[in-house]
# Entry
Amino acid sequence: MFTHVVLIKFNTDADESYIADVGSKIDTLPQEIEQVRGVAYGADIGLTSGSWDYAIIVELGAASDYEAYAKHPTHVDLAELIKKGVADRTVVDFDG
# Structure
């Protein structure tokens, strides 16, 4: 199993509608992209100071699946949407 994690800090003008649109796009990943085995996402609940606003976790079968996932039009559309409302993001990819 290969896991792709994206942590996001939204712009101050990213409203609930925009964040809901991001979630809706994430929900389509397993149906649209063969390599995606599962997804999880959500807003930080505020228990830890200095935390990021939102996390996206995408599970793929193997690291070798990442290239096809990254180039898939559904992922590209999601990435473009995220760029519109994000002040910063970081990524962690790991096997296991």
